[in-house]
UniProtKB/TrEMBL annotation:
PANTHER family: HTH-TYPE TRANSCRIPTIONAL REGULATOR GADX (PTHR47894), HTH-TYPE TRANSCRIPTIONAL REGULATOR VQSM (PTHR47894:SF1). Keywords: DNA-binding, Transcription, Transcription regulation. PROSITE patterns: HTH_ARAC_FAMILY_2. One of its GO terms (molecular function) is DNA-binding transcription factor activity. This is HTH araC/xylS-type domain-containing protein. One of its GO terms (cellular component) is cytosol. It comes from the Bacteria. Residues 231-329 form the HTH araC/xylS-type domain. It comes from Photobacterium profundum 3TCK. It holds the Pfam family HTH_18. The keyword DNA-binding applies.
Length: 335
């Protein structure tokens, strides 16, 4: 299945790092989390992934709280101090920036399975390209800003330099805030393009990479797992399990699609939103019951049920026996 058919995901730990930026703007972050469409417990979530769409909303909401130049500097810091070091674990001893970019194209899929980046040549000039379906939204714009800042910081960290591109092509139409972020820097921006593209040069691509000593001996990571559409839907919706009121319309919103399209695509995969929701609940509740630290009352609350009785009825309806019996059977097998 093509990457653009997958539900766009981001690692939850990375999303949580961006959520922590909220503390620069608000003491009470929860109203903004709700507005962005993020689960309230995201900073404590054990889910591996979450949908990309609410994070794009979050980037746009934070942009409204600060001037573009200050916000751009905050994003640069979090990219340089958090995101790039995390990606270095997937990049194995590149000799130059061209090899580093080739490794990055694979490494980034570990953290965002639908991502697609590459080096392309136009009229003999190399460009770093990022492929996304264009949207006329503030969230899309700020995600594009993040990608541009990331690319620049990636080059500067890997080569220990202070490089800036001469030309950048962007998909967004209104780029005024972007010009503010790069104020005083001689970069030519061209809007309304089909891809986000940053002009490079052969000399930049041939620049030797100088990795921090602590990363030089890292083993090459395994190839990123290929995901199916259904897998990405499960991964995207799992963090929202604690919201029992979530219906197909709300699920479609966080997946950046319509309820009708979501139902049609699920039907094509021989399943329904109800089945997916029940399967996520069952898998999560079984995993929690296998952890003796959680009581059944804790688990029912964590899954968003009003009380343990509601949880027990839902679990028994799916399995044929109450959660207490499942826990006892598991504990018996473990002893």
């Amino acid at each position: 299945m093509a990457a653009n058919q997958l539900t766009p995901l981001i690692k939850t730990v990375h999303a949580a790092t961006l959520v922590e930026l909220l503390t620069h703007f608000e003491k009470d972050i929860y109203p903004l989390l709700k507005t962005a469409g993020l689960p309230e417990d995201i900073l404590r979530s054990k889910s591996e992934f979450m949908p990309e769409e609410p994070i794009k909303h979050l980037l746009a909401l934070m942009a409204e709280k600060a001037d573009p130049e200050h916000y751009g500097n905050l994003l640069r810091i979090v990219i340089r101090e958090y995101f790039i070091p995390k990606l270095l674990h997937h990049i194995h001893a590149p000799k130059n920036l061209e090899e580093a970019f080739n490794s990055l194209a694979t490494a980034i899929i570990h953290d965002s399975p639908s991502a697609k980046i590459s080096i392309e040549h136009f009229k003999g000039t190399p460009w770093f390209c990022r492929y996304k379906t264009k949207e006329d939204t503030k969230g899309f714009f700020w995600a594009e800003v993040f990608a541009i800042l990331f690319t620049i910081e990636f080059i500067n960290v890997m080569a220990k330099t202070h490089w800036l591109p001469t030309s950048v092509a962007v998909q967004s139409s209104n780029i005024e805030p972007m010009l503010e972020i790069f104020k005083g820097q001689s970069i030519q921006f061209v809007s309304d393009r089909n891809v986000t593209a940053i002009e490079l040069s052969d000399s930049i691509l041939n620049t030797p990479v100088i990795l921090p000593a602590s990363f030089k001996e890292k083993k090459a990571s395994s190839a990123p797992k290929k995901r199916t559409y259904i897998e990405t839907v499960y991964l995207a919706l799992t963090p929202y399990l604690g919201q029992p009121s979530m219906n197909v319309n709300e699920a479609a919103k966080v997946l950046n699609t319509s309820a009708r399209t979501l139902q049609r695509r699920l039907a094509k995969e021989n399943t329904t939103f109800k089945i997916i929701r029940e399967n996520i609940m069952l898998a999560t509740s079984c995993r929690l019951m296998e952890d003796a630290r959680y009581s059944l009352t804790d688990i029912s609350a964590k899954l968003g049920y009003a009380d343990i009785a509601h949880f027990s009825r839902a679990f028994k309806k799916l399995t044929g026996f109450p959660p207490k019996d499942y826990r006892n059977r598991f504990l018996d097998r473990s002893t």
